């Protein structure tokens, strides 16, 4: 347990010393909330429960996007880069148990995700009149934990499938960003989307994460506002991610011809 | 308690290619054992099997009486690995990295002591990303030793060191052996093997082609090498060389004689020259270097220009 804690702290320290990672996982989604409300306005409209600002619906979507970036993109690129540098191989040669090391990476990413979500919600409440109901906070927390765990497992899967950083970065972006557009994240008001896009969104986990979290922040929903079927879909993706990682994850630096990272000595079959 | 490392009939295949082909050797505690060979000879594959990074195809491999392929944390607690291919988190400082990895071991060398040992005092709080190549090798070494290991694997430990740092690295390895640790070293520097190793195994194409102390290996190439040059005015020296017993290589005025009877051959040569009243230029009698032996042992293997100090393409 102490080893796990030490691994989490070390990963956190590394995260804060990597300004690019900190910017894209924490600052960027918040910037989007600021821009969305600036561009599309933060109009209030009347409901049976009273007046509601439109940022009430942007905020949960972008919070979930921050959580998914930190876990899925963050873990995927982080581990691919650490493998390429031979750091994972070093860890494998020490008494640090592999699952403790990976657990440290995952928990650190979930911690950063939590910071991102809290920052987003706090900004929404403080600056844009977003309302958070105490009775629905448990649903927010549970949804966050299940969703982050699911995207963390998918991050492990990404690091297993993408053997190099050069593959992990575009793979992460090419999967998460388009998905965000069809998952009510960037376009929260379910405008007239074609049925096939709707179906696609329903298959992948991001929409369920976003809608479950959104439901817990929706003034029109009834407390406690748990979306069990969406959490179920997230758990299925968690299992898929974990299975791919268990099957494919490697600690060995990849063999990339014509490129060498620091002092890496490739070990293919001798010519 | 068996030897620290015991390898018998070890085989490793990569697909259809046999990288390690029936290798056997043992390393005792307090001994430095060097695997010497050109790139691609199988050195690193053997070491990585012993570290538990790779599985073997056949044969046995025991480290501290444990099969590394199925060993867990308690095994890794007792070994130290200094690998070419393992990096260190560039965001951490030297001190943080040693603290972090060191905390995983049950017997742990204090961080300050290690930093001093590898002479990184001035860089203790510098980020690893800012260190030079040689400094990074030194922290590699520190991380390999932080758990006070019983067996140390050193994969080309002084590559990238300047000559002075190299000497200090050697002193460090010698100290390890004097502390009753077993040290398994791979290198393609002959002087390193000669200086450090109690015993050397020369690998070529996955097989051990020679094994022994550096002196024993040298002895395989004959006991002496006589070199000299004859003056320009002297006619071909065939009448001189006819009675010489050793192997003769002549290039113009320069003559090299490899011989097991240096005294008789030298007498023949000097007598012949003295009789005619001239000096043999640059006359020397030397023991063949390990390099001479090594080159003859791996000759078949290095035909395709895999040089001794060859690049960093593969091992």
Most extensive interface between two protein chains, with residue counts: A-B, 33 and 48 residues
Q: Compute the gyration radius of chain A: what is it?
A: 20 Å
Number of helical elements of chain B:
11
Q: Strand portion of chain B, in percent?
A: 25-35%
Over the alpha carbons, how many angstroms does the gyration radius of chain B reach? Answer: 24 Å
Mean pLDDT of chain A: 84
Commentary on this structure:
The complex is a heterodimer of chains A (271) and B (315). By secondary structure, chain A is an all-alpha fold. Chain A has 10 helices and 2 strands. In chain A, a hairpin with a 2-residue loop joins strand 1 and strand 2. In chain A, helix 3 (55-84) packs across helix 9 and helix 6 (137-161) runs antiparallel to helix 9 (205-217). The termini of chain A are far apart. With 315 residues, chain B is α/β, with parallel strands linked by helices. Chain B is built from 11 helices and 13 strands. Chain B has helices at 43-51, 73-76, 94-102, 111-117, 133-145, 163-178, 190-196, 214-219, 238-241, 262-276, 290-297, and strands spanning 5-14, 17-27, 32-36, 58-63, 79-82, 151-155, 182-187, 199-204, 207-212, 224-229, 247-251, 254-259, 281-286. In chain B, the strands form 3 sheets. Chain B has a 6-stranded mixed β-sheet, with helices on both faces. Chain B has a 4-stranded antiparallel β-sheet with strand order 11-12-10-13, covered by helices on one side. A 3-stranded antiparallel β-sheet of chain B has the order 2-1-4, with helices on one face. In chain B, helix 3 (94-102) packs across helix 4 (111-117). Chain B starts with a strand and ends in an 18-residue tail after the last helix. The model of chain B is unreliable at 301-315 (pLDDT under 50). Classes of the chains: A mainly alpha (271), B alpha/beta (315). Chain A binds chain B through residues 3, 6, 10, 13-14, 17-18, 82, 85-87, 89-90, 92-97, 252-253, 260-271, and chain B through 14-15, 17, 19, 40-42, 44-45, 48, 51-53, 72-74, 76-77, 79, 81, 83-92, 96, 100-101, 103-106, 127, 133, 136, 143, 147, 160, 206, 312-315.
């Amino acid at each position: 347990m102490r080893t796990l804690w030490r691994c989490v702290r070390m990963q956190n320290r590394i995260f804060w010393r990597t300004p690019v990672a900190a910017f894209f996982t924490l600052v960027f989604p918040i910037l989007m909330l600021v821009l969305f409300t600036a561009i599309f306005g933060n109009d209030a409209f009347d409901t049976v429960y009273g007046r509601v600002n439109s940022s009430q619906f942007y905020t949960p979507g972008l919070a979930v996007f921050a959580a998914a970036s930190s876990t899925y993109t963050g873990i995927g690129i982080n581990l691919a880069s650490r493998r390429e540098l031979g750091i994972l191989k070093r860890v494998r040669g020490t008494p640090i148990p592999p699952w403790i090391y990976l657990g440290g990476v995952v928990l650190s990413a979930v911690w950063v995700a939590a910071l991102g979500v809290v920052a987003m919600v706090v900004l929404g409440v403080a600056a844009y009149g977003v309302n958070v109901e105490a009775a629905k906070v448990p649903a927010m927390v549970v949804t966050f934990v299940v969703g982050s765990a699911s995207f963390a497992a998918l991050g492990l899967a990404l690091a297993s499938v993408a053997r190099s950083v050069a593959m992990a970065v575009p793979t992460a972006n090419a999967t998460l960003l388009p998905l965000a557009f069809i998952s009510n994240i960037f376009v929260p008001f379910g405008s007239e989307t074609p049925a096939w896009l709707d179906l696609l969104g329903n298959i992948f986990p991001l929409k369920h994460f976003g809608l479950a979290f959104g439901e817990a922040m929706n003034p029109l929903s009834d407390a406690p506002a748990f979306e069990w079927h969406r959490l179920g879909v997230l758990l299925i993706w968690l299992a898929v991610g974990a299975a791919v990682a268990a099957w494919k994850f490697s600690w060995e630096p990849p063999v990339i011809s014509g490129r060498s990272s620091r002092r890496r000595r490739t070990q293919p079959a001798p010519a | 308690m068996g030897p620290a490392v015991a390898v018998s009939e070890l085989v490793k295949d990569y697909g259809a290619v046999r990288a390690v082909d029936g290798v056997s050797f043992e390393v005792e505690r307090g001994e430095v054992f060097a695997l010497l060979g050109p790139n691609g000879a199988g050195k690193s594959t053997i070491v990585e099997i012993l570290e538990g990074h790779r599985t073997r195809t056949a044969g046995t491999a025991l480290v501290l009486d444990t099969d590394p392929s199925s060993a867990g944390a308690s095994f890794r607690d007792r070994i130290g690995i200094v690998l070419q291919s393992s990096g260190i988190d560039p965001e951490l400082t030297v001190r943080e990295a040693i603290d972090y990895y060191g905390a995983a071991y049950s017997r742990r060398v204090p961080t300050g002591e290690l930093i001093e040992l590898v002479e990184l005092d001035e860089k203790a709080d510098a980020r690893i990303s800012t260190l030079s190549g040689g400094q990074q090798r030194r922290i590699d070494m520190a991380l390999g030793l932080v758990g006070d290991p019983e067996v140390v694997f050193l994969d080309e430990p002084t590559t990238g060191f300047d000559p002075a740092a190299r000497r200090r690295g050697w002193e460090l390895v010698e100290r390890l052996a004097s502390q009753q640790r077993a040290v398994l070293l791979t290198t393609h520097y002959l002087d390193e093997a000669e200086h450090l190793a109690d015993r050397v195994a020369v690998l070529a194409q996955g097989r051990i082609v020679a094994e022994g102390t550096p002196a024993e290996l040298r002895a395989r190439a004959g006991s002496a090498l006589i070199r000299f040059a004859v003056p320009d005015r002297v006619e071909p020296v065939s009448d001189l060389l006819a009675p010489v017993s050793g192997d003769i290589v002549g290039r113009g005025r320069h003559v090299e004689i490899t011989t097991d009877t240096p005294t008789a051959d030298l007498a023949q040569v000097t007598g012949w020259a003295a009789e005619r009243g001239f000096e043999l230029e640059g006359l020397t009698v030397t023991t063949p270097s390990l390099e001479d032996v090594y080159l003859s042992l791996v000759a078949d293997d290095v035909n395709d220009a895999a040089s001794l100090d060859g690049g960093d393409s593969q091992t």
